[in-house]
Amino acid sequence: MIQLDGVSLNYKDDIPLLENVNLHIPQGGFCWLTGPSGVGKSTLLRMLHLEKKSSTGLVTILDTPTNHARRSILCKLKQRIGMVYQDFRLIPNLTVFDNVALPLRLQHSDEETVQRWTMRILGWMGLEHKKYVYPKFLSGGEQQRISIARAVIHRPNLLLADEPTNALDDYQVKRLMDLFYDLNDLGCTIIIATHNDALIRQFPAPRLKLENGQLWTSDAV
Amino acid sequence: MLFKYKTTDGLKLQRALPGQYLIPLVAAMAFLAALSIAGAYASQQLANRWSAGAASTVILQIPTTSDIPFSDNKTTVSPTAKTKTQLILALLAKSKELTSFHQLTDKEIDELLAPWLHESIQSFALPIPVIIELHLKNDPPLSDTLQKSLKEIIPDVVIEQSNFWNQRLNALANSLQTSAFLALLIVISVAATVIALSTRNGLIQCRQTIEIIHNLGASDTYIALRFANRSAYLASIGGAIGSVFSIPLLLFLTYLCLPFSSDPNWQALSNASWFYFLITTPFQLFALFILLPICNYLIGWITTTIIVYFWLRHLT
Predict the structure, then answer these.
(1) Are A77 and A50 in contact (CB under 8 A)?
(2) A184 to chain B nearest CA, in Å?
(3) What angle do CA A8, A10, A14 make, to 5 degrees?
(4) Which of A58, B23, B192, B235 is surrounded by the most beta carbons within 10 Å?
(5) What's the pLDDT at B269?
(6) What is the pLDDT of residue B298?
(7) Long-range contact list for B233-236, CB < 8 A, 24+ apart?
(8) What is the distance, to the nearest Å, from the Cα of residue B57 to the centroid of all Cα atoms in its chain?
(9) Among partner residues B209, B217, B221, which is closest to A91 by beta-carbon distance?
(10) Which of A49, A89, A115 sits opposite B212 (nearest CB)?
């Protein structure tokens, strides 16, 4: 469950992005986050990913109040969240395999599990043959798929995706949405930021619209 | 192909915390620390010797009376002085202030005066006083009661307490020791600063990777330990190198300090081989040199852990 109570958020400490926002997304919810470019969708996702602190208000992520939580608790919480970044954020000196396996290794999963799960997700993404390749040798679409694989490999309870379909073709978008729906069926809460209206129409779900510092909710289109 | 599956988190610490700068700097600090430790140890030994030796020693001089006839040009003590000396010895034997006392024999007085007279005192018609060396349980001076009792037996007895010099020599030894410890503290602070700066540079280099793995759920402890273990490893290597390099210099300094040795045959030792000095170096000093790399490891580990924890606070 995600809950925001009277949350305000400033960009670079002085530009207001969110003003007194209230939001409730139940566990297993699925919604789109939309809004014009530069309105602060990525910053809101970063706040939900505990990378940024709200200026005021209470933020509850996966039933955990985070405002005054200890850093160790926030770290544990982050291990239950998957994040797909718009700029992928892959580690350049790690191979595709090691990048994807990172969340499992940080959770101290045994190496056999790491091997099995990583090979499985790479196979699903169609990138098994590139497991020893470094990110700089991959195309944008491939890097995006690696970023998505890294976000979902540890079966998160909350998945935040920032424009995850930008560099993908229609076929890959369809497969990706299938993956997201499968995860959602398993109880994972999913929020996808996009400004692709066609995509939203193709995969209807409740919509959060960020505009002028306010978050408007609307039912599935 | 198995080697390709090695566990890795992307923190290239060999590049972020290179040994080529940290090891020589820490080695230099360890070298200085070894010298400081040796200095502190030598000062402590000197202070102990002075306080256990000269500082707690009092000399009594019982003058021989001038009206006593001297037979055959010999420095014999008059019967009156002899009786009074025995009375004084009896008094000293009863005193609880002393650990021991000793009346110097003619031969010992000869040895004492030999540098000046070049002949036995027996050859001169000199009124040499009876000399009694007192070793006190505590620091001088003698208690007023004992001094009064001694004066009652022989009013012109000379009590040479040499307090003035003893106190100053002890103060000198203590200040040398304090200086050595201060030098050691400064060296430790400089070493910690060098490690802290090196760690900070490493953190800045790895900033992007740290942010990514932190956002993937890597705890502060995990990141701090990764850096701390690397730093501590490099610091201990530097410590070991500095420690080993300090040994030849310390042996040379030991050679130079021979005249201050408690060994009466120190002049004979000046021709001894370096191996002799090596095997006669006090065990405590060697133990400290073995502890030095371990201390460096701990300094490196603690400093790095603190720096990384503080730095990570900048990340949300």
Answers:
(1) yes
(2) 20
(3) 130
(4) B235
(5) 67
(6) 96
(7) B233/B297, B233/B300, B234/B17, B234/B19, B234/B22, B234/B23, B234/B26, B234/B300, B235/B22, B235/B26, B235/B191, B235/B195, B235/B296, B235/B297, B235/B299, B235/B300, B235/B301, B236/B293, B236/B294, B236/B296, B236/B297, B236/B300
(8) 22
(9) B209
(10) A89
Q: For position B175, what pLDDT does the model report? A: 87
- Rg of the Cα trace of chain B? 32
Alpha helices of B53-131 — where are they, by DSSP H? 79-94, 106-117
Residues 108..167 of A with a Cβ closer than 8 Å to B: which? 111, 115, 132, 150
Kindly list the domain boundaries of chain A, sorted by start residue: 25-53+61-80+158-221, 90-155
B242, A132 in Cβ contact below 8 A?
no
Q: Can you say whether the dihedral through the CA atoms of B295, B297, B303, B309 is positive or negative?
A: negative
Residues from chain A contacting residue B316 (CB–CB below 8 Å):
50-53
Which CATH fold would you assign to the domain A25-53+61-80+158-221?
Rossmann fold (3.40.50)
Q: Which of residues 52-71 of A touch B (CB under 8 A)?
A: 52-53, 71
Contact B300, B234 (CB under 8 A): yes
Q: List, run by run, the mean pLDDT of 10-residue segments along chain B (316 residues).
A: 54 85 92 86 73 71 60 51 80 84 82 69 73 78 83 83 70 84 92 95 93 94 95 95 88 72 64 70 77 94 96 81
Across the A:B interface, residue pairs with CB atoms under 8 Å apart total: 62
Q: Alpha-carbon distance B79 to B65, whole Å?
A: 10
- Of A165, A156, A215, nearest in space to A187 by CA: A156
A78: nearest CB among B4, B208, B215: B215
Q: What pLDDT does B205 receive?
A: 92
Which positions ≥6 away from A136 have C-beta within 8 Å? A92
Which residue ranges of chain A lie beneath pLDDT 50?
none
Q: Are strands A189-193 and A158-162 parallel, antiparallel or unpaired?
A: parallel
What is the reported pLDDT for B180?
86
Q: Give the pairing of strands A30-34 and A189-193.
A: parallel
Q: Positive or negative, the Cα torsion across B275, B277, B283, B288?
A: negative
Cα B177 to its chain centre, rounded Å, is 7
Decide if B217 and A53 are in contact by the 8 Å CB cutoff: no
- CA B103, CA B108: separation in Å to the nearest integer? 10
Sign of the C-alpha dihedral computed for residues B262, B263, B268 and B271 taken in this order: negative
Q: What percent of chain A has pLDDT over 70?
A: 99
Closest residue to B212, CB basis, from A91, A105, A115: A91
The predicted pLDDT at position B147 comes to: 85
Burial status of residue A87 (CB atoms within 10 A of its CB: 0-12, 13-18, 19 or more):
exposed
- Chain B: residue whose CA lies nearest to A87: B212
ipTM score assigned to the predicted complex: 0.92
Backbone angles phi, psi at B127, to 5 degrees: -80, 80
